[in-house]
Amino acid sequence: MRIQGSQFHTWSRLLKQLPPAESTISKFTLQKSTITINNIAGVAENAEVVLNGWIDKKPKKISKNLNFGLLRDHEGNTLQLVDTKSLLKHAAVEDVVQARGHLSPKKDSDSALELKLNSMTTLNRSNRKPSELQDFKETGDYPPEYRFLQLRLHKYQAILKKRNSITKSVRDTLNDQGFIEIETPLLFKSTPEGAREFLVPSRKVDHNSKRPTFYALPQSPQQYKQLLIASGVNKYFQLARCFRDEDLRADRQPEFTQIDLEMAFSSANDVMQVVEKLLVPLWKQYSASNSLLTLNSRGRLVSVDKEDPICHMTYKQAMTQYGIDKPDLRAPDLKIMDLTEFKARGYTNKDFPVFEILILRNAFDSKESLQQNASYFNNANNYNSRVPIIVPIEDEKDANNWFEKFMTLAAFENPKLISKFLKLKKGDIICGSTRQHSFSLFENPTPLGRLRQLVLDSDWGKERYQKTNKDVATWVVDFPLFSPKEKNTKEDKKYDYPSYCTDAVTSTHHPFTMVKLSDYEKLQTNPLQCSGQHYDLVVSGVEVGGGSTRIHDAELQDYIFENILQIKNSDKLFGHLLRAFRMGTPPHAGFAVGFDRLCAMLCGTESIRDVIAFPKSITGSDLVVGCPTVVDEKTINMYNIRYNSKS
Amino acid sequence: MRIQGSQFHTWSRLLKQLPPAESTISKFTLQKSTITINNIAGVAENAEVVLNGWIDKKPKKISKNLNFGLLRDHEGNTLQLVDTKSLLKHAAVEDVVQARGHLSPKKDSDSALELKLNSMTTLNRSNRKPSELQDFKETGDYPPEYRFLQLRLHKYQAILKKRNSITKSVRDTLNDQGFIEIETPLLFKSTPEGAREFLVPSRKVDHNSKRPTFYALPQSPQQYKQLLIASGVNKYFQLARCFRDEDLRADRQPEFTQIDLEMAFSSANDVMQVVEKLLVPLWKQYSASNSLLTLNSRGRLVSVDKEDPICHMTYKQAMTQYGIDKPDLRAPDLKIMDLTEFKARGYTNKDFPVFEILILRNAFDSKESLQQNASYFNNANNYNSRVPIIVPIEDEKDANNWFEKFMTLAAFENPKLISKFLKLKKGDIICGSTRQHSFSLFENPTPLGRLRQLVLDSDWGKERYQKTNKDVATWVVDFPLFSPKEKNTKEDKKYDYPSYCTDAVTSTHHPFTMVKLSDYEKLQTNPLQCSGQHYDLVVSGVEVGGGSTRIHDAELQDYIFENILQIKNSDKLFGHLLRAFRMGTPPHAGFAVGFDRLCAMLCGTESIRDVIAFPKSITGSDLVVGCPTVVDEKTINMYNIRYNSKS
Known about the structure:
- The structure is a homodimer.
- Helix content of chain A is about 25%, strand content about 25%.
- By secondary structure, chain A is α+β, with helices and mostly antiparallel strands.
């Protein structure tokens, strides 16, 4: 970067003083540390050592000639400084210092050492701010604009190091399996049918329309990696930066990292094997429990290994049993039950005829605990659409007449039979709602699926229903290839059924996914009944990654673009893929793992912000550097654009 | 990505036919290869094998029942197919096939094998295009829109693999030295004093000015890595994507990758040691010559090793001896000579008083060879400013009167003395030009420096003056911290002296570079005479990377922003750094290596395009996917911007 100055003639008319030479030069004259605090045990007693670090706390004056200080080094370890020379007299919290002295055993300890200071250089003086923010230091929860102070804490230094180790493991494993990492462009092309993309104005003007042109930042390297397969690459991977300009939710970032991979001449099974070989060892090495569980063929929780690979569950199983396509199997037995067999059925919406229930056994001991939890589960803000009806069983009468509470929703031919089967007891909670037919289950999560999620997110629910604290993995397969487009009806649809367009479908994942071969002919007759060759890896209710066998046949891909998805300018948008498919692109399949989320899970933290050095805020701002910012109009004019007149 | 379709009702009114099930399904039903061509030697004769790959050439019909084909697998190796069943009858070049058959020895060879085809499945049929482009395949030089065909060639597959290996070596070495890789944001803040940045419109509107806001893509992670040092990180690195929206030259890319590193509590020497430990082994492992040379203390070319680390050369030495700050030391003795001591001096511009010469000994044998080369070196298009005067010595007279040709530029007090010293002979060429005083050498390259570069870029010059074909490395240190701003005078300044503003300086590298401590006081009196603590690593005339000791003192940094560079809103632009510096940022230094260029050098290719999977064209377009593109106005309106009215 070249920065332009001006008024070269006026060095004498200085606005600021050049800081005094002596003090500045001493800040830049440093010796290397001879040791880190972690290693001092091995140092000969009374050896002189040099330690660089920060003043961790305000030094304490013990007597006229004795100060105690605390030095923190770059690993976040601390050492007591003993100062008989008033060297610490003016030291402030977070001063950067170089301490020289002798190590000696602490008086009150058998093993701990302290440093008797001989001399100390202040390499950079801190202002009072870190000291004012000391309270945040204790909780670890600094305001985001002080991220650089937060990251100095041991916890965050450990996370940064762990993320580096995980990254290295990922790359080593994939390299060992014959994958090569290839960087793909970030200045890509706008294909606006997807999620909202970030645009990058270019200075080029389209020579036909005379309009300005734009790059787009990629949502994933999907298209480039398919082009790499067309380019003869056999096994590709990349830790790739991806971008989405979506309205941010608590745990979404506008830029994020994924482990992206693709294999030529391969099918879903090959990819799933690679992913298991990649991820299972990461859980064994890095997660808090050093293990990863799955369900075996008898539905028992077992550790994933050769005999018990990660279980497979169809989308339909996941949706009917757990009400969501990413079931949290740490509570494998907390299942939703379809009462159709018992001749109960919903009647309020003909597309949602299935009445289903979720029973929370031994859910409450007292009225108070009940009210507390029920209000949380009843809160409509926690739901996308309908809130399930929640019926606590407070006595014998409730146990027999529970169904009456559901009669606004469902008709029961033989409620007594059901009661006999359900065996409700005082302290149970029965929750009920309706859903679509099993063969066209598109509402995801269902109201009960969402309720189950809320239960398992609460400490109360975890304690009662989770069978394990360890992570539990499953593959989810046989997703619908297409989904009907949801209608945007009234603004507050929380209490309503979702409704779907009858004349438009969207790709459930992306338009490059291959149909299940057994459903091939249905592409013509009933696309919504087609399953795709897509597979998600779900761990403890989190979609860790997903992948699919891709289409490599240009005519089939074109058919899906034009006839099913009704994309008008598909050749303009995706012509590069179609052209490549027509010149010898082999069959291929691939996968992508959300790497930030993976790191957060392996680091045992809830928020992906903890594992990103400089995360964006929920409004997409970087509060450390202060961006995005206004840019002067002259600059944006270079891109042949200008502010909207109203702005 | 979710793609929206429409007209769900009209499945019957199909525009395109669904491709027939049978042929499509067979394309997706594949067996794994049992072997690669590279490994067939170990297979038992007559074993049945499965090989996946491409039809490399149009099959040859030998007789009615015999076709020969050539299969190429993903490693780019080929195997002869022997077909007695007319399986290859309709095969086209670049068809993707699965071949099953028996291996048997080739009739006309002792060791080579061929595959007797039992059956073959076409996994994807290619159109005629690859066959039409066969001529490009032979040269390897496909039109850029067919990059995916080009990358299938063995050369490019090898480059992709080699880049992956180099990447891995870099990461392993840095990890072993205690560096951790940390990803920094790509949605950064616009700091428009630098090179032109790419902007990324955000949907946020600034609440004060009501104007739209923008992110900028980073030119390098410089500011974030300094913030990481402020965050207590001890040794950071990253293979980082960087962006510059500059007018592209032949070998510039708008996005590129650099090895970026930074070390806390460290100085220039620490960083240079790390860089040598990182890069020297790469040259030994990956370069064609498996070695890296440098100059020893006696000016001899020696292999870099512990006894002979990479030599150091000051900016002044480089500029006076080689006329450029990135000297090509493969011709260490081809040096420029300052004739000031001989009382020759330039008189046409008082700021360019030094007359200097470069002698090309034994440069030509005949008039023809002379003319050919001289016209190349005389071509003003190859120079930024003045073209040197070039005087071939064709006879004894020329050898004595050479100086007369330079008298339009320089005055000579005692030309005979100089002649005696120069010992010019028939066949030599003497080139002369003027330059600035050694203490304010800002024209870079000088005319003779540029000429020297042209000589060494030519095959003719390489042959005559290069002492080695191996790469030769040097450190260049003691750069001027600031440079005067060049005036944009007339458009064609090729024949003119550069002229400089007297009232504006720019940072020679960037504004975060620390001044040499011995020059500290000159910041106040004469900034242009200050050297910076910056160091470039130059290999064979290429600036492989550069780094510096950074300023970590907020007051000094602020002084440089405001008083020297006269940046008015420095706190707005760089406040994040100043704030961090004021809260305990340790001393630090770092480095960045241009990774694409490094890979190109190690792969022995001239163009960085060869080592980038999907490079942009010289106009910044991706010709494979076709971007940048026009975006509809509704989309850009979301960002509160619109097309310029004139567009």
